[in-house]
UniProtKB/TrEMBL annotation:
<dbReference type="InterPro" id="IPR000719">
    <property type="entry name" value="Prot_kinase_dom"/>
</dbReference>
<dbReference type="Pfam" id="PF00069">
    <property type="entry name" value="Pkinase"/>
</dbReference>
<dbReference type="InterPro" id="IPR008271">
    <property type="entry name" value="Ser/Thr_kinase_AS"/>
</dbReference>
<keyword id="KW-0723">Serine/threonine-protein kinase</keyword>
<dbReference type="GO" id="GO:0005524">
    <property type="term" value="F:ATP binding"/>
</dbReference>
<feature type="region of interest" description="Disordered">
    <location>
        <begin position="1"/>
        <end position="33"/>
    </location>
</feature>
<dbReference type="GO" id="GO:0004674">
    <property type="term" value="F:protein serine/threonine kinase activity"/>
</dbReference>
<feature type="compositionally biased region" description="Low complexity">
    <location>
        <begin position="19"/>
        <end position="29"/>
    </location>
</feature>
<keyword id="KW-0418">Kinase</keyword>
<comment type="function">
    <text>May play a role in the regulation of metabolism and signal transduction processes.</text>
</comment>
<keyword id="KW-0808">Transferase</keyword>
<dbReference type="InterPro" id="IPR011009">
    <property type="entry name" value="Kinase-like_dom_sf"/>
</dbReference>
<keyword id="KW-0547">Nucleotide-binding</keyword>
<keyword id="KW-0067">ATP-binding</keyword>
<protein>
    <recommendedName>
        <fullName>Protein kinase G11A</fullName>
        <ecNumber>2.7.11.1</ecNumber>
    </recommendedName>
</protein>
<comment type="similarity">
    <text>Belongs to the protein kinase superfamily. AGC Ser/Thr protein kinase family.</text>
</comment>
<feature type="domain" description="Protein kinase">
    <location>
        <begin position="57"/>
        <end position="395"/>
    </location>
</feature>
């Protein structure tokens, strides 16, 4: 930590050369962040100096550290624009054979453009360090936020809010052929508006995927379902960056009753009308053929197929999604043992059990049961991915198209950046 001063330079001038490699993106390549003032700040410095690098940033506070690097709250000097900068020591990465993981994370971040995933504004390297400049989330992570809740678990309505946004982020990742493999509360950050952002992609697996559009086999059932609950009036968009609309005209809730109120004219459709209705096609993009033998992840979140060394694919993300849902609802994971070995044994050999308290809905428990099936081929989400999970009754009433307009359970207090300056 002390290897970099508050001005983002190493303790000795010989450790770091001037910026040896630098890459910046633009707002045009990241439509969901097109109106972000941080793009303008970066462009201003690049126009003035021609290149953006370590010397342009001031580190204010260490936010956390992971297996491949440390993350700092940083300021683009003279702009009052703040970022989260991940700083990785290249010698350490080489010595611990982690270079490929760092490269994987950078490549994944470069291609992401989604409201619930990180924006990579720029990245650069020096002789000693590799740096990723991303957005700063002042709300901390969901693990810390959960610890602050009464009973150390979230109310079910709050859980629905968080996991719905995470589900959309996972759907987008799978559409790009990215298996996340590291879902846990510590990796879910809270933005200043209370919405979430997935972080840390160094354990992710990249593979091929072929997105396809499918239609419901029962138009009548689908039409009746849409007429009786909240329903997105827009068809699914096949373009990944368009899956969520970039802005909403007014704040509202997507988790209450029907978003569109029912007028007197909105009666139950006549049979002859129903039979003429054709459902919107659904986008399915699940990298179901992917296989990896790597033993990666957090012990309490590891899927059975990873522990057994049988090879795993995208179904591991739906297992971790189930563990994540369980932890938010009950304040603990379902298979945790006295140690790592006992935990792994429980994942393989122990059945899923629910505590008597807190009381959660049947639909929540049913969703968890479907996700925590030990056989990956029988697991909810294995065949049609997020498409079938979104149709589970637990998510009834969620307006997926307007989810960014939903009021979050909690909005972080404004952070006084000046108090971090040294």
């Amino acid at each position: 930590e002390r290897g970099i001063s508050s001005r983002c330079r190493p303790s000795t001038g010989s450790d770091v050369s001037e910026e040896s490699a630098c890459s910046s993106f633009s707002s045009t390549s990241k439509p969901h962040k097109a109106n972000d003032s941080r793009w303008e700040a970066i462009q201003m410095i690049r126009s003035r100096d021609g290149i953006l690098g370590l010397s342009h940033f001031k580190l204010l506070k260490k936010l956390g550290c992971g297996d491949i690097g440390s993350v700092y709250l940083s300021e683009l000097t003279g702009t009052k624009s703040y970022f989260a900068m991940k700083v990785m020591d290249k010698a350490s990465l080489t010595g611990r054979k982690k270079l490929l993981r760092a490269q994987t994370e950078k490549e994944i971040l470069q291609c992401l453009d989604h409201p619930f995933l990180p924006t990579l504004y720029t990245h650069f390297e020096t002789d000693k360090f590799s740096c990723l400049v991303m957005e700063f989330c002042p709300g901390g992570d969901l693990h810390t936020l959960r610890q602050k809740q009464r009973g150390k678990y979230f109310p079910e309505q709050a859980v629905k809010f968080y996991v719905a946004e995470i589900l959309l982020a996972m759907e987008y990742l799978h559409m790009l052929g990215i298996i996340y493999r590291d879902l846990k509360p510590e990796n879910i950050l809270v933005r200043d508006d209370g919405h979430i952002m997935l972080s840390d992609f160094d354990l992710s697996l990249r593979c091929t995927v072929s997105p396809t559009l499918i239609r419901s086999s029962n138009p009548e059932t689908e039409a009746l379902r849409k007429s009786s609950q909240a329903y997105c009036a827009q068809p699914a968009c096949a373009e990944p960056s368009c899956m969520i609309q970039p802005s909403c005209t007014a704040p509202t809730t997507c988790f209450g009753p029907r978003f569109f109120s029912k007028s007197k004219k909105d009666r139950k459709p006549k049979p002859e009308v129903v039979n003429q209705v054709r459902p919107w096609p659904e986008l399915m993009a699940e990298p179901s053929d992917a296989r990896s033998m790597s033993f990666v992840g957090t012990h309490e979140y590891l899927a059975p197929e990873i522990i057994k060394g049988e090879g795993h694919g995208s179904a591991v993300d739906w297992w971790t999604f189930g563990i994540f849902l369980y932890e938010l609802l009950f304040g603990k994971t379902p298979f945790k043992g006295s140690g790592n070995r006992a935990t792994l044994f429980n994942v393989i050999g122990q059945p899923l059990r629910f505590p008597e308290y807190p009381v959660v809905s049947f639909s929540a428990r049913d969703l968890i049961r479907g996700l925590l099936v030990k056989e990956p081929q029988q697991r909810l989400g294995c065949k049609r991915g997020a498409t079938e999970i979104k149709q589970h009754p637990f998510f009834e009433g969620v307006n997926w198209a307007l989810i960014r307009c939903a009021s979050p359970p909690e909005v972080p207090k404004p952070v006084e950046i000046e108090s971090f300056e040294v």
